[in-house]
Design goal:
single chain, 252 residues, alpha/beta, Rossmann fold, 11 helices, 40% helix, globular
Length: 252
């Protein structure tokens, strides 16, 4: 599903995409060899490996094999290091989409309290640094957090990415009593969302639906990363990137 969504978005934006469907028994060495070919292909400006990978393949080794300048998922050690130091040139698309939405709201983020219910390298950890760069006070919760509702009820910004609901019959992870009045609620979870949307939307100042909220923003930021990688590889400088990308126009 994710691959199809990315393919459709690339086609709509005029970006040529190519998918390599490899057998499940492909070795780690074979996969890395394919990545190295793409690294050295001057006509390729962005590379991503759709995760998760089969158990016999080390995801970290594979991600590390992608050239940082073509790592449009933003997972390589070099790009994580850049983010740590406040440079989001190529950073993880989902948290990038979240902060882009927040930046476009008529709300002063500085000094706000944010609670993130996720500590993954794909969402929670990159989002910490992005919010800190906006002078937000960040609290991170996870599966071992005790008395979670006491934390969420204090959040001006609540981001949840647990994803336990698989059907409409499953209980919501975030209910009305766990949300502060006028909070900004960002629901990253799939397939059904963590938040009782129909009820919480009456209490929140802003809230994202599932589907149709963070998902499309993730795809948009992935395309932004492809454009950034292309521009960088053409110019070998990220000074151009800062001037060329208008987040507001891109997300509208």
């Amino acid at each position: 599903m994710y691959v199809r969504m990315k393919q459709r978005a690339c086609k709509k934006a005029g970006i040529l995409s190519e998918t390599y469907d490899l057998p499940e028994d492909t070795s780690e060495e074979e996969l890395i060899d394919q990545i190295q070919k793409l690294n050295h292909d001057g006509d390729v400006h962005g590379i991503l490996v759709q995760l998760p990978l089969p158990d016999h393949i080390d995801e970290e080794e594979v991600i590390d094999a992608i050239s940082p300048g073509k790592d449009v998922d933003g997972f390589s050690p070099r790009n994580i290091y850049r983010l740590f130091h406040g440079d989001d040139f190529l950073s993880a698309a989902t948290p990038q989409g979240i902060v882009t939405m927040l930046d476009l709201l008529p709300v002063e983020l500085k000094g706000k309290d944010a609670v993130i219910i996720n500590r993954s390298t794909i969402v929670g950890k990159p989002l910490i640094f992005m919010l800190l760069d906006r002078d937000v006070t960040v609290h991170v919760c996870h599966s071992k957090t005790e008395d979670l509702s006491s934390k969420t009820k204090k959040a001006d910004i609540l981001v949840t990415a647990v994803g336990l609901r698989e059907s409409d019959d499953d209980p919501y992870f975030i209910t009305e009593d766990m949300v502060k009045d006028d909070a900004i609620v960002i629901d990253v979870a799939t397939p059904k969302g963590d938040v009782d949307f129909e009820v919480v939307k009456e209490k929140a100042s802003y809230i994202t639906p599932v589907p149709g909220g963070v998902g499309p923003m993730t795809i948009a930021m992935l395309l932004r990363n492809v454009l950034a990688a292309y521009s960088y590889l053409q110019n070998q400088t990220n000074i151009f990137i800062v001037d060329a990308i208008d987040y507001g126009g891109y997300t509208s």
